[in-house]
Amino acid sequence: MKFRFLLTFLFLASCTNYNSISINNSTYNSKGFAFIYNEKDYLNKTIKIKLDNSAVQVAHNKLRTNTLIKIINPKTKSSIVVENFKKTNFSDFYKILITDEVARQLDLDVNLPLVEVIEIKKNKSFVAKKAKIFNEEKKISSNAPVTSVKISNISKDKDIKKDRSKTKLYILIGSFYSKNTTEFLKERIAKKLPDYDIKKLRSKKNKNNEIDLFSGPYLTINLMKNDYILLKEFGFEELDIFTNE
After folding, report:
1. In what order do the strands lie in the sheet with 240-243?
2. Segment 117-140 mean pLDDT
């Protein structure tokens, strides 16, 4: 639609972070929810590929097969680097499809699986370093006492239950130099999306002295998902998700 092209022009001219993909598309970087693989989703054709939940496997809907991907748990700073198993289609609401084993290694809260996904350009030194780190971590994990792992998991589960009720979710629409651009977008969203509650739109200066335009807060993923889909259909190609201002 014409408004999509108008938005593109405005963002290229006055926005420092319209979406999470750099303008030259050299490196993918996005924040949001991981889709944790479930056999039922494959059987009912919600997803089109079969994964092994006991293995470290991921799939992406934008990055090519065998692309190196770094996945970060923003809450714990845990991270993992893995090759994209396959490029496949799934809901744009999710940033990546992962197995249970990936979620476990990242120590993700399965009820709120927030991740940051970063494409890594391959080079020989990085691949060699990755292989070395993987072998060292494998050796450490195989020698770790089972009891200590169980105690650690119980402790983390308690922390998750305490924090979950306090977690607030936000959709980052973009960061702008101009307040006029922010106000213009607010007006357009109010006019074009009658089902969207305009009171959820908020703006705030960030540490770089730019103006962040975001939507929220949301207390559940489902409430946020509805607005996320509305904003995507409105013309925003990529939207980041973050927690608590």
Report:
1. 201-205, 211-218, 169-176, 240-243
2. 58
